[in-house]
Sequence to fold (510 residues):
Amino acid sequence: MNGQLPPSSAPQAGDGPEGLAILPEHFYLNWSRRLRPPVVIQENSGQAVPERWLQQIWWHQRILRDKLTLIDGRSLQVLHPGFWNREAGPDFREAVLRIGDAAATTGDVEVDRAESGWRSHGHAENPAYTRVILHVVWKPPITHQAPPLLALEPYLEAPLHEMADWLEDVAPSLLPASVPGRCAAPLAGVSTAATIELLTQAARIRLKRKAGDFSLRARHVGWEAALLEGLMSGLGYRHNVWPMRRLAELTADRIRPDASPSTTDESGAKRIIGWEARLLGLAGMLSEPTRTQGGPSHLRTLWDAWWQERAAWQEQILPASVWRLAGVRPANHPHRRLALGARWMAGGPLGDRMVDWLNGDVQGKAGAAELRAILEPIEPEDSHWRWHWTLRSPHLSRSQPLLGEGRTTDLAVNTVLPWLWARASTGDRPSLIQEIERRYFAWPAAEDNAILRHGRQRLMGAAARRLPGRAALQQGLIQINREFCESAGALCSGCRFPEMVAAMPDGNPH
Ligand code: SF4
Fold:
């Protein structure tokens, strides 16, 4: 058998009933087959099935679920297939499985075309795969070691060639029924206005909690250091939050209060080089350039600055193991993020500049642009970071910003505004608090990302309604996710959020 569609004829005039239509009857179908040739799979030929098909089959559970048996003979019950992880690491997270007579376990699932992928892809030695509780492959292997293994082929709901069209064209745009949580149905019955209000209230809680964290931290290290730690953590963006924060802790007391934010004068440029060298050196990311790397380079300049003070910092240099680089997008690479942090530190304390920004009469997009100008000083045309993602990466064809609009929004709603709110509340300044909240709730939405998408799909399912593009609503979604979903897991076990939805004035009684 083969998974190919029936042979397609080239588009020809006269395919349709004469005189009834301008286009032949199968015009679209024939052309789409011609332009997008189907994936051909010869079943039982040993030819590899595309891995994305196996992932779709697992995600949508297009298998005989009540008959599943592992290669080692134990039965398998899939209580939840997990959530598809589109980033580095195992393919599915938070799956809930029962193997044999054991209690249900939560963990990750990795899908590979063949069992040998476990070793050849390096999963066996990769710490990101230690939570894998099931390896899913296409055919049973001749020999097998850990982890527990399921071969999909014997359990397909229908022969592969019958599923080929669905796998190729339909499945990628479908949200499996396992993704929306228990609250999705009742929330669908709530008006959009009430949903917006709910998210807004959740966002206010998130703002105050973050502000509370800043107040506590400022008691120990002062407002300036607390702000710097928050901003550097934000630059760590999920994967590298802690090492970035650690660098802020190590260096906060070195920031000169009298430093000018200018990067164009000679002393400003020199300060930046000094800070870049210090941060990258402390991060353990600077090594002496080899001779083969040619004449003067940015790396050489930094190394020349770093080796002079390296001995004084020796004890504090971070080990390479604290950094997570796999799956980090080039724009978020720690090299770039530290280069930006160096500009902040070279510019002196940021707190006063944040307060000035708050006191300025800037509204909407202009306010966001002005904050970005503070956080992302203008780079000279020949700056290394305009033209290279990392210290050693090749020259780019297009100049790239060090921060960008999306990250500015993240830093505004997660750090700058909560920090200002904390400071204003300590000083009992109700009008300032009002202004901070006005900016917070009006701030334009951040770029969509995996966390937001996941949160939206869990709470609202495939028919996620159109909500106003405001960052605060995204923050509200994250707050609900953190408060309820994280502890409840994929099966929403014990989650009481649906009760809150039911108690809303137009919530569904249930
Ligand atoms: S855990 Fe709770 S809030 Fe999260 S999706 Fe499930 S029911 Fe909704």
Summary: DSSP finds 19 helices and six strands in the chain. The pocket of iron/sulfur cluster is lined by residues 181-183, 458-459, 480, 484-485, 488, 492, 495, 497-498 (CB under 6 Å). The chain has three domains: 1-38, 51-173, 217-441. Residues 1-9 have pLDDT under 50 and may be disordered.
